[in-house]
Specification:
Layout (H helix, E strand, L loop, with lengths): L10 H19 L1 H4 L11 H24 L7
Keywords: Membrane, Transmembrane, Transmembrane helix
Organism: Actinomadura litoris
Protein name: DUF3311 domain-containing protein
Length: about 80
Amino acid sequence: MSDTSPARVTAARKAAAGVLLAAPFLVYLAVPSYAKESPRLAGFPFFYWWQLLWVLLTAVCIGGAHLLTRRRGGAR
């Protein structure tokens, strides 16, 4: 009989997932670093397109954290 226990998520993977989840939060808190008008992109001030870029990057970070912490083998 084979061992069917689900693979455990290692501490290193949990730490990497934590970094991926914390990075966007820290960027959003650093408003003074991106509260400026130039450079402009398609007529939008830096402040706006930088935030929009991080909305997309946040989705990528959350997806990466999910992939790092999901269990293999269909177990929940």
